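By way of example, we now present a protein record of this kind:
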Amino acid sequence: MPLQNFNGLFGQKVLLLTHSGSDIDALSSAAAIYFSLSKKFKITIGIPDHMNLQASQLAKNLEIPFMLNPQISGFDAAVCLDFNESSMLGSMREKFLEFRGVKYLIDHHRSGKEKITQANNACSRKDAISTTEIVYDLLKATKVKIPKKAYECIAAGIISDSASFTIADHETFYIMA
């Protein structure tokens, strides 16, 4: 589990990085971590290029702080959320590949040929309906107090990626309950 490895990052700068054209699941995953851990870490949510309209509205409604195209070189660690190939980073791809800090991955998509993190820093569950489900499980495992705003983000990500529960499973409903 990658969040166990976060213990060495206290006081360091952590970038929560979504894919280019960030959607609700990607933004919600980053925001849930941000709202839950920003008192322990210096966290920034970074979005390459742009986000979709629904994610933009969510960011506005829940006052989710983010930066478009952050300078990745200024961070000690990057947590890749809701993607597993560098091609999903758009204009930030080359800078990400050059980044020498610690890289983590939290994702629910099938793995591609490219490995953007070390295996022990990856939490990938292709059986999960959304990345926010994985983030929820990781936050619960750390026993951190999850604030209301983080729960709102988790719910939004799950509802979005499950197509309003059309493809939900028992885990989806357990988390939502």
